[in-house]
């Protein structure tokens, strides 16, 4: 099973009007792989994710998941099949509590979402609440469980963003810049959590923080100008001249500016 | 504990409350209330629109009623007349709520009013069930004195049949042998044109075409082009209020007046819209049951009194209000102001007969509808202003009731 | 064939009348994102003010055409400064509701001032004749409305595309933060746009009054019609509003001609079809998500 | 007994005793309020819980009302027949219209619902032979259950009260159920819900159909109550006024629409007896609520309660105030 291809992207292209964002991108993802996706701004990373999740339809090419063509399958169905994403910008139910956010995910997972005439409370759904509380505890959010999400700090919201993705028990997890905008301590905390994800979970991760991504990934894909520039071992990529020129060099220059 | 105590007290309180006062339970279980209604006053509930599209009609009806009651000093015998006004708006359901208030809460002896036919139909069952004499002072839908006839409903205004029918035969003999019909698309417009059609074709005329623009239509140009190209000698139109202003104006602007005479119901060129139409209405022939220009002593006195009190000309609605007030007063006078028995009141109304500014009126005891003269009038230019002139009188027009 | 030609002239004149009435709403919505449900009420104020002016100035229509739109623009300015400005932080839905409440208030205020009788404004002397086209007489005023509509459309297009103000406005459409960065006082832009929107509403009121007349509840009828035009044209696009006005003019006029029973139905049917098939309107900007 | 349960029992008791306290007119007014409250509650499922602001809800009210009226006149005034037929008709109508409407959102949803409701209005207005045209249908027989005649306003009141309690209870179960929480999730962030694996379009359609169906029930009851129905109850102004009821009362709460319905009906009835300017008064009150109390009467009530209850510590107030305001019913 180790070498089984779970996700196959076959010559996917994407353009808006005259603007070409992705050009014939092909990629095979094996089960359990941790793939880091890097590339300069505008390289098409988030568009690539949007196509994988079904939020966007590609202009050309196909996507296969466990051998099945899912190019035209709606986004929510892909989620239910196990392809789950987190968002680059926090995209939470801001007016609801942390617990309610989490319960919405869990009730879907346990197929309780179509129950109409039974109030959702701790007495009637003990297992659901138990699982939610367990997750909240694991992520160190006990004190925040009944707070409204928008009252939380940015870092905490970011944490919940990832938590909501993981809570579904995905098979393929797409993380879009999980540590963007976080402090060093918060980043370390997240990285730690990501390290402890189940080993058979396939993870694709877009990340600007190269320390983070090289620490997590066992394979790197560099997107540049809508195409895959390099696809290989992290160490290989780290030392690649082209990458340093077009991506890392720029980033560092920007960071030091 | 406090809360339980409160609940117990609430129950006791409610029980005490229910023991006294006239609660709904008591008033629905009792049959007749007898003399508990009015003491020294006669209460008349007036249900007219004070807001919405028909507000100006309601206003004039009120003015007419008040003018008459002023003239008898708001007294019948030893009893004082009290009017309780409620705004029917343009919404039948709201009007029904208000009618219930007048009947159940204010305990009126007599109900009068309603401009909209839909409102009259809406409250019909309520007044019938509760035996409240209801004098309809405007709403003209045919069925009110036909299939929806009630022992307690009488109408002093008009029926759409009277309006449409009266011009049919006359138009065939004096206007033309072929006719195009244009009427606002609502029940009343349809009924009036139906009645006209019936009388006109019975006389031998031919209807070339019909068109029914929606109520409140703003641009008639398309319809007018169609009518212009139809082979008819004249056009029979039913429009009222702002529709009448626009239709008559646009009829003139698009040059239809030159080759097709415009005829219709009196509202096409009535007192309240003629001023806004400029000279567009000149030459129009219409039929109606009262006009400012009627030259009788009764009408002269009415106009003078009205103009003195309000400093403006009376409209046809003012006349309707005036007559309705007079009918109620005359009926109650024969009962010495005792309005407690609704059956006696309606009996008294059925016998009312007098010469109104619109000519002699009396009621048809079968249909409960007013028997009145219909006037064929022509709009002319007098001293730079449009004025109507009666050119023929059709006497004692009676609604067939079927 | 004459009748088709005549109906076409009717369509265009009715369509452009709609454009004159609606363009103010479209402008405000397009630039500020505020759906002004009091637009019909401003239109009504324009019509009533011009009525009062013509009555007191010996039927001087032109005087009304100069003063009434300005008066409405001032009303609109007051509304913006007193009611809307303090509430920009409340969000768009609240502002829509606010203007809806305002429409109720203005409804009763005009009824209190001008009464509930049906009124009308006579055609200006110089435009009261008729012209024969396609074997049918057309009022000169209707043709003048066509001209006014075309000029107004051209003017708005010119301002939006060719002037500095237009550039700011277009920038405001796409990115409010950017024009702040350009050093433009965004508050001022809002106020000016609302002023112009009010002016256009009042202008529409004066132009339409001799044709449509003045009567209670006229503003709600106008509002609904204006919303339909706005939706069909595509939100906030002047060109779209122009095309939509003409489309409605043509569809409604020919529907009245061919199947009069459906004329009430067809406008809303058209709106529903446009919303289902092309939710951004005939010429609306394509909104890309994410 | 908690505070909420206590208030509930007191309210229900007051309603049960109404016929013994109120005179006939006020009893009828309460009946009308309860019917319109059902209508407002139904719209609230869409507006308050799912976040879809509709300006065409009168369409379903009308469908139910006309269905009842025609059945009662032509076939039988049996209450269950008219009620369930109206419910079915409104569900079918809202399912068909809903399929198109739930595909768009925001302003477009508002306009599309308006378009559909105006089309239904013009159909009702035009089809004189079926619907009576502008005159409406009158003389509709009062409802019967078996041989029990509900023309007596007190019996009818209890019938409506029973239905109201059932519907209110049912809806509060629904909005707090996992299904209802999905609707709230859609209101808050539809994109996120999709990425959680929810077929949001289907849920929006379900909300649309629940709202439409109950709107039809309200229409049916209104027809039975007044023995009359006319096109003005299908016109967009009816949709507008029920929307105002929901917003003034407090959208997204259960009690809000009920209070809103009561407020508007009482205001319109009482105020218009004294002045013709009732529209202006409603307009001003509406503006005040939009600006100062966007959470409606419920929000205002909570604010007042908090400022009165001195037992709460200051910090608790400041911490909880916004909590309560923004999260009225969601947490309970």
| Annotated CATH architecture of the largest domain in chain D | Orthogonal Bundle
Number of helices of chain B: 13
Count of beta strands of chain D: 4
Q: Per the principal axes of the C-alpha atoms, what is the gross shape of chain D?
A: globular
If helices are DSSP runs of H or I spanning 4 or more residues, what is the number of helices of chain D?
15
What spatial form of chain B do the alpha-carbon principal axes imply? globular
Would you give the CATH topology of the largest domain in chain D? ABC transporter involved in vitamin B12 uptake, BtuC
Radius of gyration of chain D: 20 Å
Architecture per CATH nomenclature, i.e. the level-2 architecture of the largest domain in chain B: 3-Layer(aba) Sandwich
Helix content of chain B: 40-55%
Q: Which CATH top level class of the largest domain in chain D fits? A: Mainly Alpha
Roughly how many Å is the radius of gyration of chain B?
A: 24 Å
Q: Tell me, rounded to a whole number, the average pLDDT of chain B.
A: 89
Number of domains of chain D: 2
Q: Give the structural class of chain D.
A: mainly alpha
Instruction: Give the fraction of residues assigned to helices of chain D.
Output: over 70%
Please count the beta strands of chain B (DSSP E, at least 2 residues each).
Answer: 15
Subcellular location (chain C): Cell membrane
Pfam families (chain C): BPD_transp_2
Protein name (chain C): ABC transporter permease
Membrane topology (chain C): Multi-pass membrane protein
Reconstruct the topology from this structure.
The complex is a heterotetramer of chains A (257), B (402), C (290) and D (332).
Chain A: E1 5-16, E2 19-30, E3 34-38, H1 45-53, E4 60-65, E5 68-69, H2 75-81, E6 83-85, H3 98-109, H4 126-138, H5 154-167, E7 172-176, H6 184-195, E8 202-206, H7 210-216, E9 219-224, E10 227-232, H8 234-238, H9 241-256
Parallel strand pairs in A: 3-8, 3-9, 6-7, 7-8
Antiparallel strand pairs in A: 1-2, 1-4, 4-5, 9-10
Chain C: H1 2-32, H2 39-56, H3 61-84, H4 92-114, E1 130-133, E2 136-139, H5 140-162, H6 164-174, H7 176-181, H8 186-212, H9 218-233, H10 238-258, H11 263-277
Antiparallel strand pairs in C: 1-2
Helix pairs in contact in C: 1-5, 1-8, 1-9, 1-10, 2-3, 2-4, 2-8, 2-9, 3-8, 5-6, 9-10, 9-11, 10-11
Chain D: H1 3-21, H2 24-49, H3 58-74, H4 79-101, H5 107-126, H6 128-131, E1 137-138, E2 144-145, E3 148-149, H7 153-176, H8 178-188, H9 190-195, H10 200-226, E4 228-229, H11 236-249, H12 255-274, H13 278-292, H14 296-308, H15 314-326
Antiparallel strand pairs in D: 1-4, 2-3
Helix pairs in contact in D: 2-7, 2-10, 2-11, 2-12, 3-4, 3-5, 3-10, 4-10, 7-8, 8-10, 11-12, 14-15
